[in-house]
Write a structure and sequence with these properties.
This protein is mainly alpha-helical and 190 residues long. The protein has five helices and four strands. The radius of gyration is 18 Å and the shape is elongated.
């Protein structure tokens, strides 16, 4: 259980922050950049939810919870010591990736195949989902970069890769099942 009885601690005033295992690192470290960008994705999902209803809102709520799981995973290095930890760290599970895949497949089955690239936009929900997509791609790049230097849960990277695909499919669904997608016209303004 988390208890926040004081919001500021002053422990980061020198430019360092604590990871989930208590280690202190620079606030610009690759690990902090990765999980900080996951937090940014979560905020963009919160904005998208202002325009979502029903099943879409419920799916986005699940994704927000998964993103907190992902942040908890990424803020906890030393995967090789998970078994020894006093409190087992929360790690993203392959089942969370598989759920995204199933949802992507279900949305894609309802969409006409694309014959052009689409521009981010359309309905307010679709535009917000495209923003979620691009920020999640950045989070993925940062997580992959981190994985080149330190151990990262492979399911975390897979989740981020699928998540941007999920947002793409959801953006199309939010554009009247793709009928109102804004199509790219190559060279239209030459």
């Amino acid at each position: 259980m988390v208890v926040l009885n004081k919001i500021y601690t002053r422990t980061g005033d020198g430019g360092e922050t604590a990871l989930g295992n208590g280690a202190r690192v620079a606030k610009f470290s690759a690990r902090v950049a990765a999980y900080g960008t996951v937090d940014e994705v979560n905020s963009t999902v919160g904005m998208a939810r202002l325009h979502a209803e029903g099943e879409m809102d419920a799916a986005l709520a699940m994704i927000q919870n998964d993103l907190f799981d992902l942040g908890a995973d990424l803020c906890r290095p030393d995967m090789d010591k998970d078994a020894e930890a006093e409190y087992p760290p929360l790690r993203l599970a392959d089942a969370q990736v598989e759920r995204l895949e199933a949802e992507i497949d279900a949305m894609t089955d309802k969409l006409e195949p694309l014959r052009s690239f689409i521009l981010p936009g359309g309905t307010p929900l679709a535009a917000h989902l495209h923003l979620c997509r691009t920020v999640s791609r950045r989070a993925e790049r940062l997580a992959v970069e981190l994985s080149q230097a330190e151990p990262v849960n492979p399911a975390a990277v897979k989740f981020l890769n699928r998540l941007s695909d999920w947002f793409f499919a959801a953006g199309r669904m939010a554009n009247n099942g793709g009928k109102d997608d804004v199509l790219w016209v190559p060279g239209a303004n030459r």
